[in-house]
Amino acid sequence: MSDIDRLRSDHLRAVSEARDEAALEQARLQALGRKGEISKHLRALGGMDPGERKLRAPALNRLKSDLQGAIALRKRQLIEQALDAQIESEVVDVTLPGRPRRQGSVHPVSQTIEEVSAIFADMGFGIAEGPDIETDWHNFDALNIPPDHPARQEHDTFFVRSFKGRQERPNVLRTHMSPVQIRALTAQGAPIRVIAPGRVYRCDYDQTHTPMFHQVEGLAIDRDVTMANLKWVLEEFCRAFFEVEQAELRFRASHFPFTEPSAEVDLRCSWKEGKLTVGEGDDWMEILGSGMVHPNVLEACGIDTDVHQGFAFGIGIDRLAMLKYGIPDLRDFFDSNLEWLEHYGFLPLDVPALHSGLSR
Question: Which residues are CB-neighbours of 191 under 8 A, at least 6 positions away?
Answer without folding.
Answer: 221, 222, 223, 308
